[in-house]
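Aim 2 progress update. The chain analyzed this quarter is reproduced below.
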Amino acid sequence: MTVFYSDTYTIPLPDGHKFPMAKYRMIRDELLHQGILSPEELRESPIFPAQELTLAHDERYVSDVCNLTLDPKIVRRIGFPLTEGLVTRSLATVGGAVAASEIALEDGVSGNLAGGTHHALYDAGEGFCVFNDIAVAGLKLLNARKIHRMAIIDVDVHQGNGNSAILGDLPQVYIFSMHGRKNYPFIKVPSTIDIELEDGVGDDEYCSILSDHLPIIADFKPDIVFYLGGSDPLETDSLGRLSLSPKGLAERDKLVFEWARTLGIPVSLALGGGYSKPIQHTVDAHVQTFALAKSILA
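Predicted structure tokens:
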């Protein structure tokens, strides 16, 4: 299974910053250490051309990010200092997502060890998201006529307002978002289907709801599924407010992957969020997702 990664995914942050930047390298290292991926299966994420980001983003916004002239209010909404390192990281994240989507069409599955930047809007970033990797990747495939329809299965605990704002009006796109009702973002942009969960929902209820909705997504007949499998529904997640166990997350992933395998739908994986304390719980959950994707889909 081909998976994309870049050392540029990890950038320095101020002391005390709440974003667990170290998780990207930790996930890469665990996948290799456990033999889930071989070194040959990891590819360097290409730097996506900034000028092509206008597939999904406002030209002025892209220019202001890349030239480090972005409005400080938007920088605060993003939550990261605006640096050259952040720009490179953001372009590589999109490049990894685009490359993974193209490989998924050939091999049935691929992934990016970052991304799922589903809060990035057309003309602004927010919530640790600068550019919307899935929106760019999906629109690139649609515009090249490599696909006719795409679905996003977004099970990050936070609603993908950016995905819905950029892609929600397109008839070729189906967006399923299953997230915490009381969680960020507090102004949500309607998806095709939004499942709003109350605080404390556990394994059985969560997986039952997901299982009930997969046949509805199948009726759309997508040519590819972008799977945003955040680990933040975990009970140990500091920002999640749900109560899933590692076993429950595994069942969530199995439901989606076995459904896609049965229907022959390629899957492109994005990392999504994860903020457990200790961060090893987040790392283990993402490693589990990629291990299941490889065993079921590859």
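The chain has one domain: 3-297. The chain has a mean pLDDT of 98. These observations will guide the mutagenesis experiments scheduled for the next reporting period.
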